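Q: What would this complex look like in 3D?
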Amino acid sequence: MGKQLNVGLLGMGVVGSGVCQVLSEQRAAIKARTGVEITITRALASPYEDKSAIADKYGFSLTATVEEIFADPEIDVIVELIGKINPAKEFILAALAHKKHVVTANKDLIATHGPELLAAAEKAGVSLYFEASVGGGIPILRTLSTHYLPDTITDIFGIVNGTTNYMLTKMVAEGLTYEEALSEAQEKGFAESDPTNDVDGIDAAYKMVILTKFAFGMTIDLADIDIKGIRGLSIEDIQQAAAFGYDVKLIGAAQKNTAGAVAVSVGPVLVPQSHALASIKSEFNGVFIKSTGIGQSMVYGPGAGSRPTATSVVADLTELAKHRADGIVAPFIQFDAPAHLAAATERVDRYYLSCSSDIDLSETIAEVIDPTVPPQQNSNGSSAYLTKPITQQFVEERFGNSAGIQMMKVMEEF
Amino acid sequence: MGKQLNVGLLGMGVVGSGVCQVLSEQRAAIKARTGVEITITRALASPYEDKSAIADKYGFSLTATVEEIFADPEIDVIVELIGKINPAKEFILAALAHKKHVVTANKDLIATHGPELLAAAEKAGVSLYFEASVGGGIPILRTLSTHYLPDTITDIFGIVNGTTNYMLTKMVAEGLTYEEALSEAQEKGFAESDPTNDVDGIDAAYKMVILTKFAFGMTIDLADIDIKGIRGLSIEDIQQAAAFGYDVKLIGAAQKNTAGAVAVSVGPVLVPQSHALASIKSEFNGVFIKSTGIGQSMVYGPGAGSRPTATSVVADLTELAKHRADGIVAPFIQFDAPAHLAAATERVDRYYLSCSSDIDLSETIAEVIDPTVPPQQNSNGSSAYLTKPITQQFVEERFGNSAGIQMMKVMEEF
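A: Here is my prediction, written as structure tokens for the whole assembly.
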């Protein structure tokens, strides 16, 4: 008992085949380090593709009937890598009802139905782990659950979408337009043919739902987040931001104000070029944490990809194996707290404002412009300004409906 | 049983008083999240200073007799924050012999006597944790023990000494000389009056001993490390490196070659300005990891300081509290492997070579110079070159004994 952990695998796409490979390579090392041998014994056959070659290679059997996996008394844990909400949700609930532990990388599902799934796991006396749902290979969720447990986080923010960071890196470094950068991301496989979830900030917002839970204990949903994407961001804005000393990044942020209320947002932000987040290029992700104990810290790594994400999944399996050998069930999230949300519109930040050549903003914004920063003029006639600290509400009321005006928050220096 | 964890505290200096404060602030949150209340019940009185005010404030008793703490049946864990080797080593061994768990931040001791202490802990059936011994507040050791357990690390390197990083940041950003930067670090409390351990790379080397154990399972000692410091680094070299596009950083590195042998070194390295490690300024630390699964990742944060280091100590206590409530003893390090070391001199890297105005290196190094990078000339007449990849042995044999010649490794781009 406890020396063998048998896995039932649902999903053999990019990440699923990565899990087969990483487990195969690391099985002996994991056994040497934990005493437990982790083996995939059975997998759900794909309705789209013959997976018998991979099943043969890694020595597990296939079944077209998912219930056979749930009912298999030899299987201890289900790894769900199908993605999206249905039927992944039904599969996980069924697995938990059969008292199987579950490991998943499904951020959409955890962000939208996490509390229901965690309650089902608790009721069944098993664990539900999902480290790979945020930041691919980055060790962020377990680190928040352990190292930051005796700390008080005030801000957690960063780059949590690799597709848009790849595009923005190309725009900043090579001067590509938004459309050129998107095409290149699609060619390289970093963006899907329908890039909506990435470029409109939805994917980043799902991850912020999960990070808000781990950092503040608060359960929120997508509707609580002020979401802006990078769709149609102009190369002139990228250039003008650079002239001010900033790189434009898509930043997800959950920030507590002095009254203890948390504002959660996703949107393009001007990051100082000297800030650690500005050094995060291409498809990499990074999560920056401000806390009363540790101060300022960051974890950084690949936000997606077969092997990094698979390694996070296998790290969850390894933790499960250790806990099971010890005869304990260790919950992934350590705490709940009532949601106490602040409207993003109440936050005070400096802003970048730009306008096309047919608009003269200089008088309209005279009262809010930062007099220490000279405006930038682009060769195409557009101009850009940095403001003093003002509320998002003020910016939106004054400029939100004006065509040709771009507004982005400016991140403070350290 | 398990709902209360009583702490005996040895050492009430900067970090010790931070532990009192962080525990006091976080006690209720830790209890809510783990079910365990952590309380300092007794501390060793300082021979140098009256600590009764702090003992009264945080509600614990003082004793001048350390044996009373070890013999106290109410105390579950000893926190050792005295530092240095003696008497810290004797105290820890005595505590372990009394079957007390131990948490320490003592890098010198762990680096030089870690195996003996870990064996004593194992024999006594208790835990020895020391997250704060590397990187202050950074969650690096526990992360290596969990998230990277099912991964194969090939390189672990980074900035693990805050004092020298503060000095180098001042030299790069403000043009201070080595002496000016050292004076400022001493004024700010980042460097001791005798800065030897920091500027000569000894402190960084201690940390590399510990990181080598966690990354590769190998037990090494200081003599296995090729150690260079930053003493007397010239501002001209800083400027010439910047002109090539690099910041000079003191880098500790443990790197596995294709034959599986690990070379461990500490020394000044030219880091590309676009690399994540170059964005680590002042007293901050960062550890970069290359591995076959996750790929490239980094953790970053404050390398020292009262609250960050104390928070790492309290994170160890919190993990201990959880494990004890579960009735288990979880070792901090997961694996051992035989030491298989490569001489640092066998490593192939690009090099930065500079010489004062009275030396003309151009002919001597014609065969190794990188022809794509024009040499830099400094206003004081010194010149600098980047080489093609060559072995450290070649560099040392050819230039190691030449006065007026500076040699530094160049870190590759990502």
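A: To summarize the key features: The first strand of chain A starts at residue 4 and ends at 10. The domain at 4-136+305-325 of chain A is CATH 3.40.50.720 (Rossmann fold).
Q: Very helpful, thank you.
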